[in-house]
Write a structure and sequence with these properties.
The chain has 597 residues and is α+β, with helices and mostly antiparallel strands. The chain has nine helices and 33 strands.
Amino acid sequence: SSEEDDDGNGNGKDDSNGDEKEEEENSKERKRGRHVLVSAAPRITSGSSSSRIVHHHNSLYGSSSQQQEQQQVVLQQQEQQYGHREEAVEWTTFDEQRKTFQRHGQALGPDGQMIARGTYGHNTVVERIPEDPEEESSVGILVKVSKSNKNKKRKEKMIHNVDDENTHGIWAPPSHEEKELQSKKMTCMEQVQAGLLPELNPAQQTERLYMEEKNRQRGEQEERQLEEALHDRLVERKISHLLPPNISDQPMEPSTTFHFPDEYYNYKGQPWTVPPAGTTSTAPEDAVSFVPKKCVGRFPTGHAKGVHRLRLFPQTGHLLLSAGLDGKCKVWNLEQKKCMRTYHGHSAAVRDVQFNHDGSSFLSVSFDRYIRLWNTETGQVTGTYTNRRVPYVVQFYPKDNDFFVVGCSDNKIVTYNAKSGEITQEYNHHLAPVNTITFIEPPDSTIKMITSSDDKKILIWEWDIAVPIKYVSDPTMHSMPVMTLHPSSQYILGQSLDNQIVVYQCHNEKFTLLRKKKFTSHFIAGYACDITVSPDGRFVCSGDGNGNLFFWDWKKTKLLQKYRAHDNGPAIASIWHPTQPSTVYTCGWDGEIKQWQ
């Protein structure tokens, strides 16, 4: 009977074979996961006001007879429940959209809306069904793909009539916010004049005007201080690792100590700074200088740290001024080799000191960024100056003790009036901190100022003219932290950081390098070791970074003598006595001061 049924149907075997093939194909498609059938979600036609949620399903159905029967049952249930049913998607249309989705990442869904591929496949979003039935019939099935709402940018509100200049242009009336800002900037009297505040009586007006002026001045002062602080940081940023901590608001309280009260006056009633009897201001005409042979004396330890600079009393040289790294300055009696007075007025190391032309006062510059003018005899501070920069070198103007110049860390040379404390001139053409200042007075010309800097340049200036008259620069030049004038006033010696002393001729309006005259054999790279020349100009003396002391012949540039002068640091300074031709004083960072003869 089964055979008759098959024969009666005519194609029973063929149909079963076809169903098996279709099932195999569908199973392969399911394994590969190459298509997804998005089932049509039912529509809700009830007129309830509450919103409903539509869930989208991904279903995989084959085309076998059993599956078709299951689909028919589902559609009949939908028709009984919702009053209508939706037809399934045609396989040709589904196949086209599947291929489109694989190629382009987007395809049309059963509801006619575009579905895009998300980060992890294609994402479906649950959305609210519109409450209006009419709108509901036109919307269809809602299937969307979107990213997180956090990544969505809010749409800016559109401003209509933007092109209207009278409403939104520069000629438009001020907005409410602008009016409030203007009212805050207005003073009390301006608000009264504008009608924003009631009228005030004369006493109140006077008081308000006084307070407004006081607040204005205070605001300007605060702005000025802030600008100066910001400028300081900007200027010193490049060399901040070489500078001490920021400047304090107030300098330290100066103090002085005279160590021998009984010797303040001599037997004639003269103060202790007066040269003793028999002291001459110049060396004898027939005096001949010689190279010292040995160390003949040491000064007692007076500085807690090293000694950086030495200066002799002008003309006579009977007193010695020392600048210490402990922030103190001391004046020594050379005949008795004892400290007469100590001057303590700096919170950091003293960089340089300089007597005025008669020795009645001296200047000290320190890494605490302050410059102080001291009275040599009494130890009183007669002036304190600062421009918030580190002063490296100081010199008095040769023709007037009321003016002095300072080379600073901000690449400027500043002229001060010692009486008023005002800055009268600035020379700003160097590109690095200024190291040396030297005055020369040619016989047939005006006084000129020669400066050197870390920018490896030498500039020549005329006094009180802020433009240099000559530049000296060469690719082979090195920085010169020390320059010394020869006693003949025709040459200048520079301590070059390539371990040699170079000589420049500065006679007859010329400033040229003497390439054949160089003094070598000492090591001074990284140290500002001072240079001194004998009074007759026959010998040159300098210390080095290893604590040695060197003597050269001026004419032959030949090394004559070398001594071991100081330990634990460089022999940083040396000075030749003006009236004792064969006497040299040296100091080092070991804190000792020595006399050589």
